[in-house]
Specification:
Structural class of chain A: alpha/beta
CATH topology of the largest domain in chain B: T-fold
Distance between the termini of chain A: 30 Å
Order of helices and strands of chain B: EEHHEHHHEEHEEEEEEEEEEHHEE
Distance between the termini of chain B: 38 Å
Number of domains of chain B: 3
Strand order of the largest sheet of chain A: 16-17-15-14-13-9-12-11-10-18
CATH superfamily of the largest domain in chain B: ApbE-like domains
Number of domains of chain A: 3
Helix content of chain B: 25-40%
Radius of gyration of chain A: 23 Å
Oligomer: heterodimer
Chain lengths: ~425, ~325
């Protein structure tokens, strides 16, 4: 056992082994520095978390750029097996070392956390290896592309109880979503009746490379053998919010999929629709397309007293029914008109904006991106934890189970009923 | 050989991209990645979004050094260098002056002299300091505002072109609002991409020979055109254009149009704005231009109704 890998927490746990080492005259066991330090002026400073990023594709770049705005995070290494991406790392994260083999960062004892942003079907091996190497792990969502892989990752995370495992279902960390969640929990919708969500874009979803072979691997999203398509790669985040808001997992899903625009030889649909049934009768209508960008992405929760909509970055509005009870505060709230509907803006920090005399109709300058809040939660866990994150391995596993079955329903145009046992990790 | 055309709305501009090659599917994919980069940069650089990196810098840099994303830092260093070589005609800190003159979202008004003086205290690149080792930016006093409007399009186009090249594209033409553009390689079976610089706003005149000021041939080169195009307001019998001269704090006089071609869309975008400010005084600047830069400036002659044309390795048609 390598003494340098023992930090204070583990030292206390493995004290019997430590005694054995002491008796045998083995190397002195050093405690790793505590993440929080009291400063002479009375403040508390934090040791930044040394992190490695594995995968510098579209989302990996976002993670790296976001980490630059988190002083608690120190991105020291980036791995990618594509040299073009590593050149981008050198331009955009010049202080980080670059690697083509992720095992190098797992072997580095100075790296405490690993962020996995590779193609989905490659998460499993890396996540398991990272947990085995004693690293804390932030694994992007979908956590995996098969139920079997997701189960393996979740079980490994569960077993590594001293280590942090957070899945990239980032809205669970978003203050806006949390605020609206509490609001809905307090009964603001009245009786929830239905939900609808969409993700629209006009893009082919393809990537290009001068190398034919690399182009094939870059286009894993369109590979029917490994990809969960639009419902997995985009819809999963919105579905996860629905499971949270509705406090339930679906009991059935019916799917439809078409290729409406991108007739470029692909097999996976570019336009999908899915209907999810929940135990209390609520149905969620979901659609996603790569053929039209109209109205981008949103989630609507209909209720007998009001309807709530979430738009990008967690912006939310409530549309009250005319006969719904008055809440009182709505008289002072900002209202925005959308054609014939008047939405009451739901702002997580409305009182703070007011106190700072800031214009509530403008974009809140204090608001960060959803990814920032998710990464902040991950870093905070290092200083104050380990505690189970809001987006933990169980949430990651459940989301994959739903995505896999929904993708099946969509590509085969059929209805799939969920067996509750599928969501169990045992 | 096939041609794919894509478009994007960003930075209050319509970007258009033409790519040529063998594989239509691949070309489109590369084009989408390039345009996605422009969207990404808009989020980072926008002066109008409170959550952009530039807005954060504007809010915090007067209180202390603010860390800057590496590529943006290099862009700010480039802007500082361009400010020096144009003798101050190119300046990213003009926003307070623009507001004073009513140019942001308005047609313009004569500013109150006190307000103008106050705004001038807050403008000037000398108030911006960049720490190369720490990669931070700091402002010498509160109220300084960085606005990358005069260089942002060129920078976005240059970064997008890099993405195209990495994806294997060799023939492409990318422009933002027809005023800043980059030409990669050549079009199929032609020696260069050709751009006509018109004498009047493009949508208001027919694309005939007599409306063409110059034809610029581009191959692996960028071009940026800045023009007054009649945007002006009249006060006390005097006409004021919308292009501010950072050195005087007043709208620049004289130059109608300036075009710069060179290897970097970022530099061309910035220089075309600077040349519009400098007018005929740019002759000195031309002397220090590298061989790779070409330019033309069109000014109204002081007394007569004719045009003065100053050109540097960029031939023009009869006017």
């Amino acid at each position: 056992m390598d003494p340098s890998k023992l930090d204070r927490r583990n030292f206390l746990k493995k004290s019997s082994l430590a005694t054995l080492f002491g008796l045998s005259g083995a190397t002195e066991i050093k405690a790793a520095p505590l993440p929080l330090r009291p400063e002479p002026d009375g403040s508390v400073s934090r040791e930044p978390v040394n992190c490695a990023l594995i995968g510098f594709g579209q989302w990996g770049r976002e993670i790296a750029a976001t980490m630059a705005r988190l002083p608690e995070a120190n991105l020291v290494a980036v791995c990618d097996d594509y040299d073009v991406m590593l050149r981008r790392v050198q331009r955009e994260v010049p202080d980080a070392t670059t690697h083509t083999d992720y095992r190098e960062v797992l072997d580095n004892p100075d790296i405490q956390a690993v962020l996995i942003a590779t193609p989905t079907h490659l998460h499993r091996d890396i996540a398991q290896a990272a947990l085995e190497a004693g690293k804390n792990v932030y694994c992007e969502a979908p956590m995996a592309s098969t139920v079997e892989d997701a189960k393996a990752i979740a079980q490994a995370a569960r077993a590594a109880s001293d280590q942090i495992f957070q899945v990239g279902q980032l809205y669970r960390s978003n203050p806006q979503h949390r605020s609206v969640f509490q609001f809905i929990r307090s009964g603001a919708l009245g009786r929830p009746t239905m939900a609808r969500a969409q993700w629209h874009a006009k893009q082919s979803w393809r990537r290009a490379s001068p190398s034919r072979e690399r182009e094939r691997s870059l286009n894993w999203r369109l590979d029917p053998d490994v990809s969960l398509g639009l419902i997995g790669e985009e819809g999963l985040h919105q579905l996860d919010v629905a499971f949270w808001i509705l406090d339930a997992l679906p009991v059935a899903v019916t799917g439809f999929g078409q290729i409406m625009l991108w007739n470029d030889g692909r097999q996976l649909p570019d336009t999908i629709q899915a209907v999810f049934e929940f135990p209390n009768g609520v149905h969620l209508l979901y659609d996603a397309t790569l053929a039209s960008s109209f109205d981008a992405a949103y989630e609507l929760y209909f209720g007998s007293d009001s309807t709530v909509i979430f738009r990008e970055n967690g912006k939310a509005w409530m549309f009250k029914e005319v006969d719904a009870p008055m809440l009182g505060w709505e008289v002072y709230a900002r209202k925005d008109k959308f054609y014939k509907e008047t939405g009451i803006a739901l702002l997580a920090n409305a009182t703070k904006l007011d106190a700072q005399n800031q214009d509530p109709t403008a974009d809140d300058p204090n608001v960060e991106s959803p990814l920032w809040y998710a990464l902040k939660d991950f870093m905070d866990n290092h200083a104050f934890g380990p505690y189970p994150p809001a987006a933990d391995y169980q949430r990651g596993f459940e989301a994959v189970v739903v995505a896999v079955k929904a993708h099946e329903a969509i590509t085969q145009n059929k209805k799939v009923a969920f067996d509750a046992a599928w969501f169990s990790l045992d | 050989m096939t041609t794919v055309r894509l478009a994007l709305e960003a930075m209050a501009t319509r970007f258009e991209l033409v790519v040529q090659g063998d594989d239509e599917v691949s070309l489109r994919a590369a084009g989408e990645e390039a345009l996605a980069e422009i969207t990404r940069l808009e989020v980072q650089l926008s002066f109008y979004r409170p959550s952009s990196e530039i807005s954060r810098i504007n809010a915090q840099a007067a209180r202390g050094p603010v860390p800057v994303e590496p590529r943006l830092f290099r862009l700010l260093q480039t802007a500082q260098h361009l400010h020096k070589i144009t003798q101050g005609a190119f300046d990213l800190t003009l926003a307070p002056l623009m507001r004073c003159w009513g140019f942001t979202g308005g047609t313009g008004t004569l500013p109150d002299p006190d307000a103008l003086a106050e705004a001038r205290q807050r403008t000037g690149m000398h108030l911006v300091s960049l720490d190369d080792a720490a990669r931070t930016v700091a402002f010498a006093r509160p109220g300084v505002l960085l606005d990358l409007g005069a260089i942002g399009k060129g920078y976005a186009i240059e970064e997008a072109a890099l993405i195209l090249a990495e994806a294997g594209v060799t023939r492409a033409f990318l422009h933002g609002g027809t005023s800043t553009m980059h030409a990669m390689g050549t079009p199929v079976e032609q020696p260069t991409w050709s751009v006509a610089v018109p004498k009047a706003p493009p949508l208001s005149c027919a694309a005939t020979d007599e409306n063409v000021l110059a034809v610029v041939d581009l191959k692996d080169e960028a071009l940026s055109v800045s023009a007054v195009w009649g945007k002006a307001f009249v006060a006390d019998g005097k006409t004021y254009g919308h292009v501010l001269d950072p050195r005087s704090g007043h709208p620049a006089q004289g130059a109608l149009l300036a075009a710069v071609a060179g290897p970097s869309a970022t530099v061309c975008d910035a220089l075309s704005t600077a040349l519009l400010v400098l007018g005929l005084d740019a002759a000195d600047l031309f002397a220090s231009f590298e061989d790779t830069l070409r330019a033309v400036i069109v000014c109204t002659h002081d007394e007569t109704d004719t045009l003065d044309i100053l050109q540097h390795r960029m031939p023009v048609h009869q006017v």
